[in-house]
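call fold target=NmrA family transcriptional regulator
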Amino acid sequence: MAWAESVRTRGTVAAPFGDVGVPVVDPADIAEVAAVCLLDDRHAGGVFELTGPEGVTPRRQAGAIAAALGVPVRFHELTREEAKAAMTPFVPPELADDTLDIIGAPNAAELRISPDVQQVLGRGPRPFSDWVARNIAAFR
């Protein structure tokens, strides 16, 4: 929802590393897996890695929002310096640098698509477009 205001007011999503994608997990999948694990003893003591079904880039996320809205949403790729400047009011500069290092070059584990949502829920993880559809009012 961090982009909701900029989409509503400027029709724009701004983020660094526009073509770097990770398998973003839908919060509803996290909640559903947690509920199943709490209610089903077969999952007691289990450790689960929850991911989305595919890597999704910020540029593709902006496209999914535009498709759901039915209007263009422009993607603006922030430079590393612009992204750091936007983060430093909320985090120390060194943490901003570390965060940008991580999101700019995810490692193999961060790119991996886990089977755990499927294993626990008996269905695959929801794509980003499903999350957008459920939350589209925030972007209008």
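return ok
Helices lie at 4-10, 27-39, 58-69, 80-87, 93-104, 108-111, 116-121, 128-135. The radius of gyration is 17 Å.
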